Amino acid sequence: MDPFNWLFTAELHIGDQAILWREIVGNGFGLASALGGMRRRVWAWPVGIIGNVLLFTVFMGAVFDTPQDKTLWGQAGRQIFFVAVSLWGWYRWRQSQLSGDVADGRAIRPRWATWGERAQLVILYALGTALFWWLFGIIGSYGRLTEAWILTGSILATYGMARGWVEFWLIWIAVDAVGVPTLIDAGFYPSAVLYAFYGVFCLVGFATWWRVERQAARPDTALEPAP
Fold first, then answer.
1. I need a surface site. Which of 23, 36, 94, 178 has the fewest CB within 10 A?
2. Per the domain annotation, does 227 fall within a domain?
């Protein structure tokens, strides 16, 4: 069996539970991308895209053969949006890095969103959740409201990361708070465990970006160079 077919079909069995290895591998890429995002590295974006493609096939259970045999449209759909926004974020961070405007040599300088930008996030979160709730009512969903909340928040968090807003970590925490119980209930245990870890990781990432933002805001303090 070639490596591609193995990755697509291989399962890990724990008791009577079957877990796809591509779910584990896809989440591994997601974790690496999150680490790169916290460190403000450009490579976080392409690494994340690989994980998005793998996880799309996991959550489209009605199309791709999965042990859960469930389709989570919100989880699957957000992988598509992730790829689209990540391509833009990749370009944006790369241009920022090449410009040399970031004193510590990283790809982006964190900043707080303005009150106007925060208002836009709140309005878009409400409108996006309502829109996807309506859409999932037409095409079907494992959980209309939770899937709509997860999908909308994921799009906005990825957009906020591309813009360099410190608040994007808080959006991820709001997504994980709903996503973890949803994934457990649907039987996607590796993703649920990783998302629970993401919740803690996001707190660390939020503190890290906040510290960098405060340091950069003080004109008499130089940013630490990137290792």
1. 94
2. no
How far does CA 3 lie from the centroid of its chain? 26
Measured distance CA(141)–CA(148) in Å, rounded:
9
Token pair belonging to 61: 């259970």
Distance CA 189, CA 37 (A): 24
Q: Determine the number of helices (DSSP H) and then strands (DSSP E) in the chain.
A: 8, 2
Do the Cβ atoms of 58 and 20 come closer than 8 Å? yes
Q: What is the pLDDT of residue 177?
A: 92
Alpha helices (runs of H) in the chain, residue ranges in sequence order = 3-9, 21-38, 44-59, 73-99, 115-139, 144-163, 168-186, 189-217
Relative to beta strand 17-20, strand 11-14 is antiparallel
In a domain, 75, yes or no: yes
- CA 90 to chain centroid: 14
Q: Is residue 24 part of a domain?
A: yes
pLDDT tens profile 29-64? 988 998 999 999 999 999 999 999 888 888 776 555
* Integer Cα distance of 48 and 90 in angstroms: 10
144-172, pLDDT tens digit by residue? Answer: 898 899 889 989 999 999 999 999 999 99
- Structural domain containing residue 87: 3-217
What does the pLDDT look like over 119-144, one tens digit per residue?
999 999 999 999 999 988 887 777 78
3-state secondary structure of 120: helix
